[in-house]
Amino acid sequence: MAEQRAAHGEKPVGRVRLNTSASYAIHVLEPILPAFLEQNSGIILDLVLTDNVIDLLTERTDIVVRAGPLKDSSLIARRLGDTPMWVVTSPDYLRRAGEPKTVADVDRHTRIGFGYPREINGWSFSRNGESIASNPSVGIQASDGDAIRRLAIKGLGLARLAAFTVRDDITVGRLRPVLEDHSAGDREAFHAVYTGQGGYLPARVRTLLDFLAKHGTVD
User: Fold this and answer.
1) Which end of the chain has fewer CB atoms surrounding its CB within 10 Å, N or C?
2) Measured CA angle at 180 (ends 179, 184), to 5 deg
3) Residue range 72-108, pLDDT digits in tens
4) Residue 185 Ramachandran class (φ > 0 left, ψ -120 to 50 alpha, else beta)
């Protein structure tokens, strides 16, 4: 079989189904995938974009990349780093609504949030070294992080997003961070999660995992 030949030193071959968020795909995967596919011409990458929690076996998925804390399970995970979480919005929104100066101010602003349950649904802030959990009401919901980013750019409200997804927007002035003094230490970890049933991991899956661990990290 092809996998058996690959296990004995030949190039890995076959289809790898990778499930991840649009944000990770756009800001991390897109720049590095050409090199991966050039180095591994025998691998067919099946990329599925969703932020929803999935069952790897039911969805016939080899690897899932997700942010946030991991639940205890039979799954195996490789850490892909962690990223600061920033509350951002557009300059146009701040001109209309004013800039929040305290965590309590967030409650009077429109919040753009995720339209599905997450392990951590509130926003984390800090003050004088103490952690503050804020649960502002959601005015707009979206199904993925990059949709939330685009809505924030359009001036529809405040959004809490991974730093690696909005750095370029901040640099060119499409977005502005707010409450920076209260967001210090707010970070989310990213993991590549897989099953590894019985200790066996096909060469094609292991090859992609190794590549992501080296080139697909976030900060």
Assistant:
1) N
2) 120
3) 567 888 999 999 999 999 999 999 999 999 888 988 8
4) left
| 104-124 pLDDT tens trace | 898 889 999 887 665 556 787
Contact 88, 168 (CB under 8 A): no
Q: Which token pair is 16?
A: 């790898």
Say how far apart CA 203 and CA 207 lie, in whole Å. Answer: 6
Cβ-based neighbours of 177, under 8 Å, separated by 6 or more: 86, 87, 88, 170, 183
Cα 217 from Cα 203, distance rounded (Å)? 21
In this structure, is the dihedral angle defined by the CA atoms of residues 173, 176, 180 and 186, taken in order, positive or negative? negative
Q: Which of 116-125, 126-135, 153-162, 192-201 has the highest mean pLDDT?
A: 153-162
* 119-129 per-position pLDDT tens digit: 556 787 877 66
**DSSP count for the chain of H helices, then E strands:** 7, 11
Give the Cα separation of 25 and 47 in Å (integer). Answer: 9
